[in-house]
Design a protein that fits this description.
Tetracycline Repressor, domain 2, CBS-domain, 20 helices
Length: 461
C-alpha cells in the first residue's frame, strides 16, 4: 500500500533525475515491494529509475523483478553496467536469468563476467536444465571437523557475508567431501573450546546436482529444511539450494500442472507476456483433440438413432447423463493427480484407490440416481411429458447415473496411475480429457441400459 501512495513522489524523483533521494526513499522498502512498485511504472520510468540506482541496491532490486522487466532493463543498459550487474548477482538468480537467454545473448553476458564469476556461471549452466544443479549457489560456509567452535565462529565472521544462507554450516574434509551439516544454533550454544567433530552425528540430508528440480520440493517438505547441500557424483559438496528457490520451483510446477489439467500445454512464460500466436497454439492442440473426441458422441447417437426415434424422451436426459459422468471423472482425476504430486499416494496404491472409488462412485451414483428418479416421478404428477412408462424411464435414467458416475470415478482415478506408470505426467489426464472420454462411453452405457429396461415398452425391438 505504501508503494502505491508513493508513486507520484517516485515519478517526480525520476523526472528530476534525483537519484540520491530516490535511493534513500527506496531504502525504506523491502525489495519485493520495490519490484511491485516498478510494475506500476511505465517502461520509460522503469529504465530511468533503474539508471538512477547504483551498487548493491540496484542488484538486489533487479533480482526481485519479473523476467520480462529484467530483459527490458538489460537491453537498456550499457555493456559495462550490464556486466557489473551480472557480476554482483547471486549465482542462482544469475543462472535462472542466463538460461532463458538465447545462446548469443548468453555468451555476450558471460564474457562481461570476471574470470571467477564466469567459471561459476558456466559450471552451473553445464548441468541439465531441469536439474538441481541449475538451482544451487556455490556460496556457503564450509568448515573442518577438527576446528574448534571458536575457530568456526571467527571463520563465519570473516566469510559469512558471502554465504547465501547462514542457517547451516557444512563440515567437509580436505577434498570437499561432505561429512555432516550443523545448524548454526548448535554451534552458537556449544562451548568455544570443543571441536566440531564432537557436535557431529553424520546424519544429514543432501541433494544430488543431477536430481530433478521437482524432486527437491518433496525433500524440503519432508525434512523441513531452509537449505540443503548439493553433491556431485563424487560426493563432493558443490553448492546449496535454499528454500526461496525451491518455492519458485513449486509455484512453477503447480502452475504447469494446473494449465495441463485445464486442457492446454503448459506455458513457458507468464500469461501476460506469452505471445498471442503461442497462446493460441498451446490451447488449440488440446481443443482439437478434445473436439475430435466429442465428435464420437454424434457417432454414438447416430448408432442409436432408431431407439431415439421410438423414445424421444431419452434425448432429454443426455446432457444430464454425460455431464454427471464427466463431473465425477474430473473430480476423481483432480484428487488423484494432486495426491500423486504431493506423495500422499504412490503407484503401488492403485488397487487401494480403485476400491475406494468403487465405493465412493457407487454411493455418489446412487445419490444422483435417486434425485433423478425423484425428479421424474414428481414431474409425472403434473405432466405427461414422460408418458405412461415414466417409472421405467426413471429407472433407466437412475441406473444409468449409477453406472456412469461409477465409471467416471474409475476412469478419472485410474488414468493418472496409468500415465505415471508409462513415465508421463499425470496432469496430462486433464479434466477436459477425462470428461470427453466419459461423455462418449457414458452414452454407450446410457443407451445400453435403456434398451434393457425399456425393451418391449417404449422400445419395441
Amino acid at each position: 500500500m505504501l508503494c502505491k501512495l508513493m508513486l507520484p513522489e517516485i515519478r517526480e524523483l525520476i523526472e528530476n533525475r534525483d537519484g540520491t533521494t530516490l535511493s534513500e526513499a527506496l531504502d525504506m522498502w523491502q525489495p519485493a515491494d520495490i519490484a511491485e512498485l516498478f510494475a506500476d511504472l511505465s517502461d520509460a520510468d522503469q529504465k530511468a529509475a533503474f539508471r538512477l540506482l547504483h551498487g548493491p541496491q540496484r542488484t538486489l532490486i533487479f533480482e526481485y523483478l519479473d523476467r520480462p522487466t529484467q530483459h527490458m532493463l538489460l537491453e537498456s543498459l550499457e555493456p559495462a553496467d550490464a556486466g557489473a550487474l551480472f557480476n554482483d548477482m547471486s549465482a542462482d538468480d544469475r543462472t535462472a536469468l542466463l538460461e532463458e537467454l538465447d545462446e548469443a545473448d548468453r555468451e555476450k553476458h558471460l564474457q562481461t563476467l570476471s574470470a571467477q564469476q564466469q567459471a561459476i556461471a558456466r559450471s552451473l549452466l553445464h548441468y541439465p536444465e531441469d536439474s538441481v544443479g541449475r538451482l544451487m549457489t556455490p556460496d556457503f560456509v564450509a568448515v573442518r571437523p577438527n576446528w574448534t567452535v571458536e575457530h568456526v565462529l571467527e571463520h563465519v565472521r570473516r566469510h559469512g557475508q558471502d554465504s547465501e544462507s547462514l542457517n547451516v554450516v557444512y563440515v567437509v574434509d580436505h577434498d570437499m567431501h561432505l561429512i555432516d551439516d550443523l545448524r548454526i544454533r548448535q554451534i552458537l550454544i556449544a562451548p568455544v573450546h570443543i571441536t566440531i567433530e564432537r557436535l557431529m552425528d553424520s546424519n544429514y540430508v543432501a541433494l544430488q546436482a543431477t536430481d530433478l528440480k521437482r524432486s527437491a520440493i518433496e525433500v524440503f517438505r519432508r525434512y523441513d529444511r531452509t537449505a540443503l547441500p548439493v553433491l556431485d557424483e563424487h560426493h563432493k559438496l558443490v553448492g546449496i539450494v535454499t528454500i526461496d528457490d525451491v518455492l519458485d520451483v513449486a509455484e512453477q510446477a503447480a502452475t504447469e500442472d494446473a494449465q495441463k489439467f485445464g486442457g492446454l500445454e503448459a506455458l513457458s512464460e507468464p500469461y501476460a507476456s506469452t505471445p498471442l500466436f503461442t497462446m493460441v497454439h498451446k490451447r488449440a492442440t488440446w481443443l482439437v483433440i478434445l473436439f475430435l473426441g466429442e465428435l464420437l458422441t454424434a457417432t454414438v447417437m447416430g448408432y442409436f438413432e432408431h431407439q431415439l426415434d421410438q423414445a424421444v424422451v431419452l434425448a432429454l436426459f443426455i446432457p444430464l447423463i454425460i455431464s454427471s459422468g464427466g463431473n465425477s471423472g474430473s473430480q476423481a482425476a483432480t484428487l488423484i493427480v494432486r495426491a500423486l504430486a504431493v506423495g500422499e499416494i504412490r503407484l503401488v496404491d492403485w488397487m487401494k484407490v480403485f476400491r475406494r472409488e468403487v465405493i465412493s462412485g457407487s454411493i455418489l451414483g446412487l445419490l444422483l440416481g435417486s434425485i433423478g428418479f425423484l425428479r421424474i416421478a414428481t414431474w409425472s404428477l403434473f405432466s405427461d411429458v414422460y408418458g405412461e412408462h415414466w417409472a421405467l424411464v426413471g429407472m433407466a435414467v437412475s441406473l444409468s447415473l449409477v453406472a456412469i458416475v461409477l465409471w467416471g470415478s474409475l476412469i478419472g482415478s485410474m488414468l493418472p496411475f496409468a500415465l505415471k506408470r508409462l513415465g508421463l505426467d499425470p496432469a496430462t489426464s486433464s479434466a477436459p480429457f477425462v470428461a470427453t472420454f466419459v461423455d462418449v462411453t457414458g452414452l454407450l452405457i446410457y443407451f445400453s441400459i435403456s434398451i434393457v429396461v425399456l425393451g418391449g415398452t417404449l422400445l419395441k425391438n
